[in-house]
């Protein structure tokens, strides 16, 4: 079954696709393959076995192992269909001499340790990291959540890789053990962006940045709307009280009995129940400040309160 139909749509698949597209020299390919071999399912003189569901990663492994061994038939490929319908590719090296040669080529052994003696030159370390991601890494769609992880076969490898990321690039991963696998994971969006950039997945890194910017902007807008809604509710409740005061004054005394300044703002409030104090003040002739509008409405509230006391009217009766 074709694995790419569903997987191609995933962000993780596109990251791996971009990583492989950016490998444009044998030195970069070697460093990347070394990272991939570190995370093989089996690695040693007796067996080298790598399992993957990704056809691009499969092709990269075969192409570069065969290049180093100068044997186009060096890798044996077997396929098995999983219950999910996804094809699992099993890649192995049947020839023991070729296995030994490949391990010696990279200075690797069964320990899989990333020691300074055998690491590629600093400028090729990003390709090593990319190879580790190709073998055992995944990253979630950033529109859903920020999460990158590496499912590693050995704790020592997990520690070595994590320490190198911290010391060289300030990328700080975390660790957890899950079903006998060592999981190195990153949840901070900035660290994931840095990791994608490090591995040369720059377009995917930019995509994540854009998603993060959109999320941040939406959050700011939502916070502003929530704040605005709270202010609107506060304004409307205050306006309801003010209108009740003005209607009582109009009923008992008539608005014409009020001084011009109070009568004008009383009429404006009745005409504009949704205006805030600043907007009411701006409608006055001449315009007055927010505090000026508030002062006049307070005067109306005092008149209404005095009427209620005289009439024995409770606020709840209005």
UniProtKB/TrEMBL annotation:
Keywords: Cell cycle, Cell division, Coiled coil, DNA-binding. Residues 129-218 form the WhiA LAGLIDADG-like domain. SUPFAM superfamilies: Homing endonucleases. Gene3D superfamilies: Homing endonucleases (3.10.28.10). Involved in cell division and chromosome segregation. Residues 222-249 form a coiled coil. Residues 221-304 form the Sporulation regulator WhiA C-terminal domain. The keyword Protease does not apply. The lineage of its organism: Bacteria, Bacillati, Bacillota, Clostridia, Eubacteriales. This is Probable cell division protein WhiA. Belongs to the WhiA family. HAMAP family: HTH_type_WhiA. GO terms for molecular function: DNA binding. InterPro entries: Homing_endonucl (IPR027434), Sporulation_regulator_WhiA (IPR003802), Sporulation_regulator_WhiA_C (IPR023054), WhiA_LAGLIDADG_dom (IPR039518). It comes from the Bacteria. GO terms for biological process: cell division; regulation of sporulation. The keyword Methyltransferase does not apply.
């Amino acid at each position: 079954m074709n694995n790419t139909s569903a997987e191609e749509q995933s962000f993780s698949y596109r990251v791996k696709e971009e990583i492989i597209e950016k490998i444009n020299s044998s030195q970069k390919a070697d460093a990347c393959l070394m990272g991939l071999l570190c995370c093989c399912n089996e690695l040693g003189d007796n067996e080298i076995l790598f399992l993957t569901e990704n056809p691009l990663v499969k092709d990269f492994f075969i192409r570069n192992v065969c290049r180093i061994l100068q044997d186009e038939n060096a890798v044996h490929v077997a396929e098995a269909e999983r219950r999910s319908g996804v094809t699992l590719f099993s890649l192995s090296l049947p020839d023991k001499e070729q296995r030994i040669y490949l391990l010696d080529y990279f200075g690797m052994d069964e320990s899989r340790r990333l020691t300074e003696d055998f690491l590629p030159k600093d400028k090729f370390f990003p390709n090593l990291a990319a190879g580790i991601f190709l073998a055992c890494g995944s990253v979630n769609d950033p529109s859903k959540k920020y999460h990158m992880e590496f499912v590693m076969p050995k704790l020592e490898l997990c520690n070595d890789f994590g320490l190198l990321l911290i010391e060289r690039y300030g990328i700080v991963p975390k660790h957890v053990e899950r079903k006998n696998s060592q999981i190195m994971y990153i949840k901070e969006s900035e660290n994931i962006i840095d990791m994608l950039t490090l591995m040369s997945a720059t377009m995917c890194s930019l995509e994540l940045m854009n998603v993060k910017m959109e999320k941040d902007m939406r959050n700011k807008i939502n916070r502003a709307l929530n704040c605005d809604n709270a202010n609107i509710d506060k304004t409307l409740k205050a306006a309801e009280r003010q209108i009740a005061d003005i209607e009582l004054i109009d009923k008992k005394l008539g608005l014409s009995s009020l001084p011009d300044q109070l009568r004008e703002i009383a009429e404006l409030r009745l005409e504009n129940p949704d205006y805030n104090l600043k907007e009411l003040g701006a409608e006055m002739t001449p315009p007055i400040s927010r505090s000026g509008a508030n002062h006049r409405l307070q005067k109306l509230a005092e008149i209404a309160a005095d009427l209620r006391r005289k009439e024995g009217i409770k606020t709840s009766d209005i």
